Every structure is written in C-alpha cells, then in structure tokens.
Amino acid sequence: MTLQHHDHAHHDVVCDKCIFDTDVHHFEVDVVEASRSRIVLVDLWADWCGPCHFLSPVLAKVIPEYAGKAVLAKVEVDEDDNMKIAGRYGARGFPTVLLFVNREMVDRFHGAKPEHFVREFIDKHLPA
Fold first, then answer.
1. Confidence of residue 32 (pLDDT cuts 50, 70, 90)
2. Rounded to whole angstroms, how far apart are CA atoms 18 and 66?
3. Which of 29, 31, 89, 103 has the largest CB neighbor count within 10 A?
C-alpha cells in the first residue's frame, strides 16, 4: 500500500490527504492541532506486526468514506524517535489507534478490528 506524504502547507484539502504519515517531529501540528477542526485518528503500527497489516487496509477503506471529517495519521513506531508517541499515550501493543478531538486524545482501540467496528468507533465521536 502506498501512502501519500503529508503536505504541511495544505490542511484544508477535503480528502485527497485523508491518510498521511507523520512522526514525532510533526505530531503536534498534524494531529493535536488538526483535531480542532476534524477527528484525527492515529494508527501506531510497526512493520513486523501481523495485526497491523490486517488493520491497515481496513482503515484505508473506511477513512475516505468520511470525506475529511475524520483523517488518519500513520505513525511507524520503529522509525526515528516515534516510539516516544506510543510511550506518551501509553500504547502497550500494536496496532493501537488513538482518536483525537479538539486537541485531546478521547478514545482508543487495540488490535485488528473489522470495518463495522472502525465505523462505529468513529461515528460515536462525530458531532451530532
């Protein structure tokens, strides 16, 4: 699966960048600040993680359905200092998906989940 690299200059594009890579250096802007205007999910994953490879295509299918109301930041925990993000949010296994709303991490799930679970997880946090 090829992911688009995030263009830090264009945060208002609806969904051509609804799934993007981020890292410890860009996390504050890409995730925390971006969650002021939309739901931001963070997929903490690792290449060696079998369940991560199951969840990734599920997220890749579901996230674009939200047309920018929910976006997905992917963090490869084994790259650079990215494990610091996992440590900061208490992720003990992978994949861990964090959900940010209005600059706060408000929910999470662990492990590989089916499409209907991911949709329900996002839907319960969408504004009414």
1. very high
2. 9
3. 31
Q: Whole-number mean pLDDT of the chain?
A: 90
Q: Are the CB atoms for 27 and 86 separated by under 8 Å?
A: no
Q: Which residues are catalytic?
A: 49, 52
Domains, the chain, in order of start with CATH, read 16-123 (3.40.30.10)
Ordered strands of the 39-45 beta sheet? 4-5, 19-21, 70-76, 39-45, 96-101, 104-110
Structure tokens at 69: 């109301």
**Distance from CA of residue 32 to its chain's centroid?**
11
Q: pLDDT tier at 6 (50, 70, 90 boundaries)?
A: very low
pLDDT at residue number 128: 76
Give 45's strand partners.
76
